[in-house]
Amino acid sequence: MNGYHISQKMMHWLSALFILSLFALGVWMRTLDYYSGWYQTAPELHKSFGIMLIGIMILRSYLRLKFHTPKPLNTHQAWEVKTAHVTHIAMYALIAIILVSGYLIGTADNRGIAVFDVFDVPPLFIAFENQEDVAGFIHEWAAYCLMGFIALHIAGALKHHLIDKDKTLKRML
Amino acid sequence: MKNIIKIIGASLALSLSSALFAAETYQIDTKGMHASIEFKIKHLGYSWLKGRFNDFSGTLTYDEKSPSASSVEVTINTKSVDSNHAERDKHLRDKDFLNVSKHATATFKSTKVISKGKGKADIIGTLTLNGVSKPVTIDATEIGAGSDPWGGYRRGFEGTTEIALKDFNINFNLGPASEKVLLELNIEGIRK
């Protein structure tokens, strides 16, 4: 297998768009004034797109299992392969943690999460003391960690493209 | 022998009189939860938003002969704020409002009680909230007192007071109609 399937490329960039937008939206919505017109809408959008991202990530995982991923280029250094591998695992794990903790904030108090006012994602039977605080803490810090790994991921891609001038980034385009 | 009887008599009289005239101490019944600390604030000026603190404890002393000698002391776990909406409660615990990671408790200690008769009194004291201590006056009314069916003796009060959020360094802008919070207190004490 020499490259990514077109569906994998699309899902990669789609989730990138979702994740970066959700992060920016998440940070911004918490700075809003109570009288801002976005005070109610921004969290609703954040939650709705967040629930959509769960679907996207499930689909992405399925595509990864189905099409696998291409092998690292021969020109890649051993430490680069290792760093990239750890970064990928960390990103997947953090995304999962952020999605689950986000869901737990929204469903604390046994409430459902309204997705674009179209349908409600129901709360699960799991509920624990101070759920919204514990989940909120994890959600916030996992998001900052994810941004760190994404920065590393982007730095790696740019290094391969601009310094090594290899095909690493182009394989994803 | 006469002396002994005298001593017993005197000490009996003394303990009797102190039981009759000294202030009695009551434990606020938070175990059986016959007490509540609730707040309400206007939402946009269109309705009242109510919430409460679920975890608190306290004692009071009460002197029937001279109600002005009474006192009350309450400690509230600010983390236990509950407005029946998890995300709002999370925000209330945050730095914008109660800042509970820094100020885990709020306290009220009375400094002076001015009896107004008919079971009514102004309880003046210090409220410490969000790390700020300010004098407040609780408008209190005795509801009733008496024996309970389980061998105890109880006494209950209600009280209200109004505080400005700004006074306690809570500066999140909720709008001009929502700068003050009403505290509604219902307390039942069990005599120790």
Features:
heterodimer, A: 173 residues, mainly alpha, Fumarate Reductase Cytochrome B subunit, two-stranded antiparallel ribbon, 2 strands, 67% helix, 3% strand, elongated, B: 192 residues, mainly beta, Lipocalin, eight-stranded antiparallel beta barrel
> Please, how many helices of chain B?
2
The tally of beta strands of chain B, per DSSP, is 11
Largest sheet of chain B: 8 strands, antiparallel, barrel
Regions of chain B with pLDDT < 50 over 5+ consecutive residues?
none
Q: Note the quaternary state here.
A: heterodimer
- Identify the CATH architecture of chain A: Up-down Bundle
Structural class of chain B: mainly beta
Helix content of chain B: 10-25%
Q: Gyration radius of chain B, to the nearest Å?
A: 20 Å
List the helices and strands and how they pair.
The complex is a heterodimer of chains A (173) and B (192).
Chain A (H helix, E strand, L loop, with lengths): L5 H24 L8 H30 L10 H29 L6 E3 L3 E3 L9 H33 L10
Antiparallel strand pairs in A: 1-2
Helix pairs in contact in A: 1-2, 2-3, 3-4
Chain B lengths: L1 H20 L2 E5 L6 E9 L3 E7 L2 E7 L8 E7 L3 E2 L3 H8 L11 E13 L2 E10 L2 E16 L5 E12 L15 E12 L1
Antiparallel strand pairs in B: 1-4, 1-11, 2-3, 2-11, 3-6, 4-5, 5-7, 7-8, 8-9, 9-10, 10-11
Nutshell version of this structure?
Chain A is mostly helical and 173 residues long. Helices cover 67% and strands 3% of the residues of chain A.
In words, what does this structure look like?
The complex is a heterodimer of chains A (173) and B (192). Helices cover 67% and strands 3% of the residues of chain A. By secondary structure, chain A is mainly α. Chain A has a single domain, classed as Transmembrane di-heme cytochromes, Chain C (Fumarate Reductase Cytochrome B subunit), CATH 1.20.950.20. Chain A starts with 5 loop residues before the first helix and ends in a 10-residue tail after the last helix. The mean pLDDT of chain A is 93. Chain A has helices spanning 6-29, 38-67, 78-106, 131-163; strands at residues 113-115, 119-121. The longest helix of chain A has 33 residues, at 131-163. Chain B has one domain (23-191): Lipid/polyisoprenoid-binding, YceI-like (Lipocalin, Beta Barrel), CATH 2.40.128. An 8-stranded antiparallel barrel of chain B has the order 1-4-5-7-8-9-10-11. Chain B is elongated.
